[in-house]
Description:
The chain is built from 3 helices and 5 strands; from the N terminus they run H-H-E-E-E-E-E-H. It is of the alpha+beta class and 93 residues long.
Amino acid sequence: xxxxxxxxxxxxxxxxxxxxxxxxxxxxxxxxxxxxxxxxxxxxxxxxxxxxxxxxxxxxxxxxxxxxxxxxxxxxxxxxxxxxxxxxxxxxx
Length: 93
């Protein structure tokens, strides 16, 4: 089962004792900050969780699986996530 934004809001509401409206605002503000930093090309590191990094992929040749024809795949930016050592250790114990 996935953890959704609504689940985060509910958990914050229950665990921190914030109102539902304040919990939603806090979650939205946190996501907005993370998105803005990634859009600026900055890394986002949360201690004990991991690090999001923006990486540039070069243009490359690919193949359309339906037709088999070669095609160019445009250059683009992607976001990668690497878990922290603390989280890896907790998951494997």
